[in-house]
Amino acid sequence: MPLVTRCATSRGLTASKHRRLAEIARLCGRVRAEAWNRYGGLGTLARSNRAIRDEDWLRGPKLGERTGLPARVWKAALEDALNGIRATGKAAAADVVRAVWRSKRPDSKKKALSVKLRDGTWHEDRTLHRLMRKHWRRGHSSVADQIVLDVQGHKSFEHGGQRWIEVSSLEKRRRIAIPLGKFDRPITGGVRLRVRADGEVDVLYAVDEAEACVTRPCGEAEVGLDKGYSEVFADSDGERHGEGFGELLSAESDRLKAVWAARRKLKAVAEKAARKGKFTKAERVRRHNLGRQKLTERKRRHRQAVRGHVYHACHSVLDKAGSLVVEDLRRPIRGYDRGRNQNRRLSGWVKGLVQEAVETTSRRRGASVDEVNAAYTSQWLPGCASFGKRAGDAVHCPTGRVVCDADTVAAVNILQRKTDEGIGRFLPYREVRRVLEGRSRQAPRPCEADGRCGVDGSCLRLPRRDSSCGVSARAETAINGERINSNEYNCVL
Fold first, then answer.
1. Residue range 150-201, pLDDT digits in tens
2. What is the pairing mode between strands 221-227 and 321-327?
3. Angle between the 107-119 and 71-102 helix axes, to the nearest 10 degrees?
4. pLDDT value, residue 470
5. Nearest to 97 by CA among 125, 130, 121, 131
6. What is the DSSP letter of 88?
7. Chain segment 434-444, per-residue pLDDT in tens
8. Which of 243, 290, 359, 423 is the most buried (most CB within 10 A)?
9. DSSP letter (8 states) at residue 180
10. What is the spatial distance between Cα 92 and Cα 84, in angstroms, rounded to a whole number?
11. What does each C-alpha distance from 371 to 222, 329, 419 come to in angstroms?
12. Helices 351-365 and 293-318 meet at what angle, rounded to 10?
């Protein structure tokens, strides 16, 4: 069973212990920064973590002696940094695989390049080496609030009806005891301590999914899921899951806009006071008005709320479905300018968290997940084999007689893409449009004599948009030069 991370927070930690832990975290941050600066490039893959540790940190330059940390502590910090660098390389290799399959190379060549990327022999191929240099951005680390400890660097025990954890300190044979609040589970394995600015410490540890997560059986249906901003998912049955998602994200984005506007004014006041020689006033403004403690705590609570909302929506889908088909939105979405405010709000869309939640909850509950190409899923009307006119969250049929919900249309198209051999997952969007236009030309013309749309008399087996929704709420619609009531066509297809 895979492992998941859980967090236990200290309660009543003394200021002296917090200072000692903060100093250890600062020294570990120096080890982490040194590792990223030295080994953050492609040359790291030619050496193992053990070779780097033995040749550079124990022998040779003996970098380990300069850290000021116990050997067990700096070794764990170094191992964590090197693992992070290798994870960055794996992510770059995944990006290169997508780039290779979007290219115009023969399929046999694409498969050969993909095999080299997965087995780690890509550096022997000049093409892959060039692509890896392009996608692997050399990183640096400024994290100075974390301590990584192995299984022998801590000990969990119970005393006075409360759970405690002892961790290594800078003093030999002396440990720091941390009281844990509302926590009664023993901590085993490696841990990560996160020293918070509010005087407490978070203890991150790993447990089995079966012990900490929902593992009840999933449903039996097969649905397509459209990832949205106003709600987490819209499925192919016309249901919404995780409604109010956009309100949660937009409210926090708007609040941060106001907060940072006020902080910029206060920063200008401090800089003006410093220029005039009023250093006491400038320092007072920076200390009491430009801190990060409240911002950090607010950000942590917001992340928890968003994460809970997303996972609740995933479980809502899995209660009825055992096979999920989702759109692949791993690449950044560029080229859309919706205005300054809307772009700012959409920048907070956590589509990476949504994808992670889909994969993890499906694995725990025994459901399958298939990813498909997302190009034009909210514009193509499969019933009449043509592109609709997208207006906000509505899609207007070319005949002008039907207005459908764009999210539900997208979910139906996503479900159909699972068995669509003509549109692969990595097919470029221009090629997708060319395929769809070819199908539109080959499809029979929709019958307009009886006022119905589509070859079989319907665009989609979906509910049309309600007359109170968005663009379709217009009292009248012009069709063939004639003014008619739009409610006449807002019925079930």
1. 999 999 999 888 899 999 999 988 999 999 987 778 888 999 999 998 899 9
2. parallel
3. 180
4. 37
5. 131
6. H
7. 999 999 888 76
8. 423
9. B
10. 12
11. 13, 9, 11
12. 50
Measured between alpha carbons, how far is 453 from 396 in angstroms, rounded to an integer? 11
Residue 424: how many other CB atoms lie within 10 Å: 15
Kindly list the domain boundaries of the chain, sorted by start residue: 1-213, 221-367, 380-489
Query: How far does the chain reach from its first CA to its final CA, in angstroms?
Result: 45
| Cβ atoms of 181 and 161 closer than 8 Å | no
Nearest of 52, 51, 26 to residue 141 by alpha carbon: 26
Task: Let me know: does 161 contact 177? Beta carbons within 8 Å.
Answer: no
Instruction: Name the CA radius of gyration of the chain, rounded.
Output: 28
Residue 48 main-chain phi, psi, to 5 deg: -85, 165
Runs of H (alpha helix) within 67-192: 71-102, 107-119, 126-135
Closest CA to 343 of 259, 440, 446, 229: 229
236 closest CA partner among 311, 309, 319, 326 = 326
